[in-house]
Design a protein that fits this description.
The structure holds three protein chains of three kinds. By secondary structure, chain A is mainly α. Chain A is built from two helices and no strands. Chain A is elongated, with a radius of gyration of 21 Å. In chain C, strand 2 and strand 3 form a beta hairpin. In chain C, the strands form two sheets. In chain C, strands 1-4 form a two-stranded antiparallel ribbon. Chain C has a two-stranded antiparallel ribbon with strand order 2-3. Classes of the chains: A mainly alpha, B alpha+beta, C mainly alpha.
């Protein structure tokens, strides 16, 4: 069962990795505002000219 | 069921459905539609007050002097275009470096260059159709909420990851893995369970402790018990190498329950901030004279003794003594009185009064912290905080169910060996099985979810609800109590009667000309009723604010002055020299939707009016309302109102003024209707974002539907608990069953609950 | 005061040229994918359509079809969408134009090489990973170029929040890299040949961990990203619930990676590993449907667009098929359902509901959205687009229903055992001829889909050639980036660093997850009972096995008898882990158009095989198998055997040094014996150097190597 010696830390590392990734992104504020991004992405780009109405 | 307004058309700019008359859904779309930023090129006149260093300091949230940062509360965010146009601000204003909208909170965060002009930015936003208010940093409650939100989210993430991993290992065992590897796999599950037990479950411990301390049973108590019992049993069984291990299902239910609580938490919108006395009137800037020196300061910077100038339509920030000879003030916030009051020099003015005459000078006798207004608000906040932990219907019903489960499992453990001839070992396994399977999940999951969805739905209808239990309390109310001014009525006067019945045009013209410069509500009402042709010119027009206005025309003296009337509404007379030619009576305008709405509400509630306005005016209004009222009182002080509310415990009260807040905060359900101060304040049970009272109908519908779903969920939980309970007692529940039943029951609850949103 | 053109802002011009290229490449390669598909569909209905040409027989074209569909059509669609949407979501031009161009041309060259090598029979014999090692390396290099280009753009972004689509892209890029590398670990024998380092059950697990996740991370996550971008764009509505989309992402990424073993249900894989695969596959249903509902509800209040806008039609169609396929997938990973559906055309139908319905319709919708925008013009004909939609929809539906019917019909016939315990349909070919009419229906459905595609091509041709002005790249004006203005460590720089940290963590997570999910590989010795000795293939058998792989026999024949009664009654004792332990690559197969071959050895005389390979219908009248007459003309590569054996020896196959050194001579001796036997039985003499003899040697050895 030597393989478990590799596996246990690996498994924990995986869980840890996901959680850390999630918490890091949360702390940076990625999840603070989950309404505006959906609106923001709808902004149309201007084709070839940066003019304003 | 289509509850949409009859005519909803796609917005001409962004295609979001709108019922606005010009078919443009929001200010942003309107702004772009009529030409966008290019129309703002010529803004030059700017309120320079905001650009004084002292004032900037107050609002600047950034530590970095090179890049100041401001937070603004924006009104009128409707659609995606609003986000786009506001975030485009840096492209058109030199001084704005970044702009980010928070759509849900209605906020705009801007970073500016050092040489920015706050006044220009505010003016820009205003011209775009987004009146903005600067927010200050000291909103600790808000920052704390973000912290708590994030903490709960972190717990949720950890629970999810651990539960998922535990599942992976336990599934292998259900799949037939045995022996040493199985033992190790269960050991890993145990390791992964520890963070769930010690970190993720903390909110349950806190909840259970609070409940026990206060002597009642919430869902947290059995939850904690089940958690620890199943943990200890699993630990014991794992160690001795036989018996059942429940790490997977236990971690799973912790995750599910945290999920539903997080959902509920994010659905309960917080509005207003603590420290509201700073919030209210916070944004105004005043010109003061202090020890001979003139300067502009914020309301919060006014000290006792400062001579303060308050402009037309501004609100007085602190209590004080009038220094101007005369002033007309709208005191309806504080008193509920609809008719403006005229004051002479040296009379007391109060924070919150609105100036209706030209600028007024007064000497401050308080600062914003200790004005009567602030003190009364502070009292209100204290009471509303202490009463904020009420149990929801769901919790109350659930506790009996839980108690039953507990007693059952206790009985099995104690009596199983005697009555059913079980071994102690077997009895123990079955007791744990019952606790894990039958006990908390369906209940702890279904409740918050149903309430959360209802709250979200209410928000979509423009109703902000402070806490979930409001939905229950609304349905317990027997009485509905209305404030009059600003709630049933608009707080604006209109001309309702005149003698003689027909007024010749020349008279109208003279009256309009006399009132041309007046800010008195009467003048507004005249202007609204009659078209001015303005051919004539009066000389020597003089106004004694609140009393009379007179002038000369073709050598004769004409005047409009206050007059007493039988009906005691606001009444004025028109005089030629000393002779009365006509009299006019005014009434506070009734909201359009009120009569039909009251007719509906009358069926299920006793209706009442509590007003700070004159009794006679209340009486005058009654015939227009078309329904009978149990009680209708006028001339009530704020204390009278709250006394009435205390004597009638099951009351739902709607109001909009400071004079209502004490009563509102004590009412079973206190609702602030949209008004100038509603959103800034931190009390009451709910707040209507849309003008008018139509929202009360939506609120009642949502509450009723919520109750129905909650009942269904409870019924389901009952059936499920009995079934699963019997199965557990009979020894049919093994860990695999538990692991399957747990998410299955949650899924059923979820499906049942999602009906709320339809 | 001049408010416009302030010095605080700058203009960013997007690289839309590369998007146009990828889009055109997608449309162009789609022709190859669809045409090949149409041809092989016809071959199944009408074997004559193999034209007796080795390069276009089913076994060689089927890998070309799948590779073209996945990597050429879907791949270019993904790249077009990612390059287009990421620049806009990040408010930044792609990191480096040269990298973009290397990515584009590199990818097209890879596809071209695939289109050349696969018909020539250069294959690794692993589904969706058939390409030989030099191309594998090229894929790795190009993928890294893409990754650097993408993460560079992420690094330089002007928008702090990462929109959910980008998370899906990140997961795609990272995971596909890991999958590709792990599954392609191989040792070259020559420029055109190699053996995977995994063998037998290890290879099976790695392959299906890869195969499943190729579907997950090449055909699902990137397309979900595209969906989260283009659906809101098309209806100009924010996504129904942004919260839900985040949950969708995390749940999907976490669960998907574990589901691979569901491709190996009822096989010799340890029971508990099968259960893990089954349970996690079932769990996938929830997030998948969450995503579908989120996409569909985005249209609430805009359902009228479904009538007027072809783009919306395509997207709604795509989402519906996504929902259907993600419901059916978990269903098929229930063991009992799998026992009916596995190896049948039901799986083929399921896959096409996903590939044509979900990936196809979404890509078309995206193309209809992008072409007019990128070429600065209007779509030539909405009517044609609508017609395309209806043709595509009816094509997929007809395809799916015909294959569902075919699969279940055949599956039930295989299972049918009468009261006396005997098969009701003992002749395998009987179960095939029964569904040939449905193969015709499928070919017609493919034609309908193909016609729709041609209409789209014509529509786009007219659209682009009718454009009044030259295409122009889009621009965006953004505030000048000001790094100096970072305050108290919470500023831009830190936020931007986050993307990198996130990526590193995702790499670690995926790596670790991968190691765990292929844990039985490392642990496999525990299950392989070494006392049950299995001898490796003899040199000639190995040469024959390589021909078996080269001709793509595994696309129609399995070598895995499941632990199911009806499998055992029909084909013999269940396959064991030991039997295939020396197989590099494993050839368990995933489809039984013909019977299982695990125990075919010594069942028939050599001449039977000879005649059957030359003309299958001479032996089995109704057979739909192509003729392999060229095997009589091609010579066996004896000389290469030494190198092959030594490579396998390196991988742990127990060949002794003497056999390796004399591999060619040993093989030739074996061949002579078989050729003599064939000649005795009535075949032409002098076949000893021909491939047919090597193949017969291999076939006759199947099931004869181990102790049962």
């Amino acid at each position: 069962m030597t393989v478990l010696i590799i596996m246990i830390p690996m498994a924990l590392l995986l869980g840890f990795g996901f959680v850390v990734a999630f918490i890091m992104s949360m702390k940076s504020g990625q999840y603070d505002d989950l309404d505006t991004p959906a609106h923001r992405m709808l902004k149309e780009d201007s084709n070839g000219r940066t003019h304003h109405e | 069921m289509n509850q949409l307004a009859p005519q909803q058309l796609p917005c001409l700019h962004c295609l979001a459905l709108t019922s606005a008359h010009d078919q443009l859904c929001c200010s942003g779309c309107r702004f772009i539609h009529r030409g966008g930023f290019s129309t703002l090129r010529d803004i030059v006149s700017v309120d320079s007050l905001y650009d004084q260093e002292g004032i900037r300091q107050v609002y600047n949230l950034s530590q970095n002097p090179a890049q100041p940062m401001y937070r603004l509360q924006i009104q009128g965010l409707q659609c995606s275009s609003c986000v786009h146009i506001l975030e485009d601000l840096p492209l058109f204003l030199n001084s704005v470096i970044t702009a980010r909208v928070n759509f849900a909170n209605g906020e705009l965060l801007i970073e500016t260059s050092q040489d920015h002009s706050l006044g220009l930015i505010l003016k820009y936003l205003d011209s775009m159709g987004y009146p903005a208010q600067l927010l200050k940093e000291n909103e600790l409650a808000d920052a704390q909420n973000t912290q708590e939100d994030r903490a709960l989210l972190a717990r949720l993430a950890v629970a999810g990851a651990c539960a998922g991993n535990i599942m992976l290992f336990s599934v292998a065992i259900y799949g037939g893995l045995i022996g040493e590897t199985a033992f190790t796999f269960n050991g890993i599950s145990l390791l992964l369970f520890l963070p769930v037990l010690l970190y993720c479950a903390q909110p349950f411990y806190r909840g259970a402790w609070n409940a026990l301390r206060l002597g009642y049973l919430t869902v947290d108590v059995p939850l904690v018990a089940a958690l620890w019992l199943s943990f200890s049993a699993s630990l014991f069984n794992w160690w001795r190498g036989s018996g059942n291990v429940y790490f997977d299902s236990t971690a799973g239910f912790v995750f599910f329950i945290l999920l539903s609580r997080w959902f509920l938490r994010t659905s309960q919108r917080r509005w207003g901030h603590s420290g509201f006395s700073k919030q209210i009137l916070k944004d105004s800037i005043f010109e003061i004279e202090r020890i001979g020196e003139q300067k502009n300061v914020l309301a919060s910077q006014i000290l006792e003794g400062d001579v303060t100038l308050v402009g037309y339509h501004q609100r007085i920030p602190v209590d004080g003594l009038l220094m101007s000879q005369r002033a007309v003030l709208d005191t309806s916030w504080m008193t509920g009185e609809s008719v403006p009051r005229a004051l002479d020099a040296n009379m007391a003015v109060h924070a919150g009064d609105k100036v209706l005459s030209d600028s007024v000078l007064f000497r401050a006798t308080s600062n914003v912290q200790n004005s009567q207004l602030a003190q009364s608000l502070r009292r209100v906040e204290a009471t509303s905080l202490s009463s904020s932990t009420r149990m929801s219907l769901f919790d109350k019903s659930a506790q009996w169910l839980l108690l039953a489960v507990f007693i059952c499992s206790g009985l099995i453990l104690l009596l199983g060996p005697w009555i059913f001839g079980l071994s102690w070992d077997d009895a123990f396994e079955r007791c744990i099985g019952l606790l894990v399977v039958a006990c908390p999940c369906a209940i702890a999951f279904g409740g918050p979810l149903a309430y959360g969805i209802s709250l979200k739905r209410a928000l979509e209808k423009g109703i902000v609800i402070r806490s979930a239990d409001v939905l229950d309390r609304v349905l317990e109310c027997k009485n509905i109590v209305f404030d009059k001014t600003g709630t049933l009525t608009l707080g604006q006067f209109e001309l309702v009667r005149q003698t003689p019945a027909s007024i010749p045009d020349w008279m109208k013209e003279i009256i309009l000309e006399l009132e041309k410069k007046s800010h008195h509500p009467v003048a507004d009402a005249f202007r609204k009723s009659w078209q001015s042709t303005s051919r004539i010119e009066l000389t020597d027009v003089t106004e004694t604010p609140g009393k009379k206005v007179f002038g000369l025309y073709k050598g004769r003296l004409y005047s409009v002055q206050t007059h007493t009337s039988e009906n005691s509404s606001l009444c004025v007379a028109f005089l030629q020299d000393e002779e009365i030619l006509a009299t006019f009576e005014f009434e506070d305008t009734l909201r359009e939707e009120v009569p039909s709405l009251l007719a509906k509400l009358e069926k299920s509630f006793t209706l009442n009016i509590l007003s700070g306005d004159r009794t006679a005016r209340v009486k005058n209004l009654l015939p227009h309302l078309g329904v009978s009222f149990a009680e209708a009182h006028g001339d009530l002080s704020p204390q009278d109102k709250s006394r009435w509310i205390r004597n009638n415990p099951k009351s739902l009260m709607l109001g909009d003024g400071i004079n209502d807040v004490e009563a509102l905060s004590q009412a079973h359900v206190g609702i602030l209707v949209q008004g100038p101060l509603a959103k800034g304040l931190n009390f009451g049970s709910a707040y209507f974002m849309q003008p008018g009272l139509e929202s009360i109908k939506d609120l009642l519908n949502i509450a009723r539907k919520n109750r129905r779903i909650v009942h269904h969920n409870l019924f389901f939980a009952l059936v499920y608990n009995i079934t699963a309970g019997v199965a557990a007692v009979s020894g049919w529940i093994d860990p695999l069953m538990a692991a399957a039943l747990m998410p299955l029951s949650s899924l059923l609850i979820l499906v049942s609950t999602l009906r709320v949103s339809r | 005061m001049n408010n416009t053109n302030s010095p605080q802002t700058e203009v960013i011009r997007y690289d839309d040229q590369v998007v146009r290229w990828f889009l055109l490449a997608m449309i162009g390669w789609a022709f190859a994918a669809f045409a090949a598909g149409l041809l092989i569909a016809t071959q199944l209905a009408y074997w004559q359509a193999n034209f007796n040409l080795e390069w276009i027989t089913f076994g060689r074209l089927r890998p070309l079809h799948t590779n073209a569909a996945i990597f050429a059509f879907a791949g270019n669609a993904i790249f077009a969408g990612i390059y287009h949407s990421s620049q806009r979501l990040l408010k930044a031009r792609m990191f480096n134009d040269t990298l973009s161009r290397i990515h584009f041309w590199g990818w097209q060259i890879i596809i071209l090489l695939a289109a050349i090598t696969l018909p020539l029979g250069y294959t690794q014999g692993k589904e969706y990973a058939e390409l030989e090692w030099p191309i594998d390396i090229a894929i790795t290099v190009i993928w890294v170029v893409f990754a650097v280009n993408f993460f560079g753009t992420l690094w330089r972004r002007r928008e702090k929040h990462l929109y959910v689509a980008l998370w899906f892209y990140i997961a795609t890029i990272v995971t596909v890299a890991v999958l590709h590398i792990v599954n392609s670990l191989e040792i070259p024998v020559s420029m055109t040949n190699s053996y995977p380092i995994w063998g037998g059950i290890q290879d099976a697990l790695v392959q299906w961990w890869y195969g499943h996740n190729a579907v997950a991370f090449f055909l699902t996550t990137p397309f979900l990203g595209l969906m989260y971008y283009y659906v809101p764009k098309a209806v100009n509505r924010p996504i129904y619930s942004y919260n839900l989309s985040i949950v969708h992402f995390w749940a999907l990424v976490f669960i998907y990676i574990w589901a691979g073993p569901h491709h190996l249900l009822n096989t010799s894989l340890p029971e508990w590993a099968q259960t893990v695969g089954m349970v996690f596959s079932l769990m996938l249903w929830a997030p998948s449907w969450g995503g579908m509902i989120n996409g569909l509800l985005t249209l609430r209040g805009s359902w009228h667009l479904l009538v007027t806008e072809p783009i919306v039609k395509f997207f709604v169609g795509a989402l519906t098929f996504y929902g259907m396929a993600t419901f059916e997938g978990p269903l098929l990973s229930i063991k009992s359902v799998s026992s009916l559906g596995h190896y049948t055309d039901w799986i083929v139908g399921h896959v096409h509901a996903g590939a044509l319905g979900w990936n196809g319709l979404l890509s078309f919708g995206m193309a209809y959205y992008l072409v007019p925008k990128l070429w600065n013009t209007e779509l030539y004909s909405k009517k044609m687009a609508n017609l395309h939609f209806w043709l595509a929809l009816s094509g997929v539906l007809l395809y799916y229903t015909s294959m569902l019917a075919a699969g279940i019909t055949q599956g039930l016939m295989w299972q049918d055992i009468d009261a006396s315990g005997r098969l009701v349909y003992p002749d395998f070919v009987e179960t095939v001829t029964r569904i040939v009419p449905l193969y015709w229906v499928r070919a017609i459905s493919g034609l309908i889909f193909f016609v729709g595609y041609l209409i789209m091509v014509y529509n786009f041709y007219k659209t682009i050639s009718g454009a009044k002005e030259a295409p122009r790249d889009a621009e965006v004006r953004v505030p000048v980036k000001n790094f100096a203005a970072t305050s108290d460590g919470e500023g831009h720089r830190r936020l931007e660093g986050l993307a990198t940290i996130f990526t590193v963590l995702t790499v670690i997570a995926v790596l670790v997850a991968s190691v765990i999910s292929i844990y039985p590989i490392i642990n496999v010795n525990q299950y392989v009972q070494m006392d049950k000795k299995v001898t490796p293939w003899s040199p000639l058998e190995l040469a024959g096995r390589d021909i078996y792989v080269k001709e793509g026999c595994y696309t129609c024949h399995s070598q895995q008898i499941r632990k199911l009664d009806f499998d055992v009654v029909r084909f013999g004792q269940p396959s064991t882990i030991e039997e295939s332990q020396w197989d590099h690559p494993f050839q368990w197969g995933s489809k039984r158009t013909g019977p299982d071959l695990s125990r075919i050895g010594k069942k028939y005389p050599d001449l039977w095989h000879y005649r059957h390979m030359i003309n299958p219908r001479e032996i089995v009248e109704k057979s739909i198998m192509p003729s392999y007459s060229w095997l009589v003309n091609h010579k066996t590569d004896f000389l290469g055997l030494r190198r092959k054996l030594s490579v396998l020896h390196q991988l742990g196959v127990p060949y002794d040094a003497e056999t390796i050194a004399n591999a060619d001579i040993v093989a030739q001796k074996e061949a002579a014996v078989i050729a003599e036997q064939l000649a005795k039985e009535g075949a032409p003499s002098g076949l000893e150097n021909q491939q047919i003899v090597a193949l017969i040697a291999y076939l006759q050895a199947l099931g004869q190597k181990g102790t049962l």
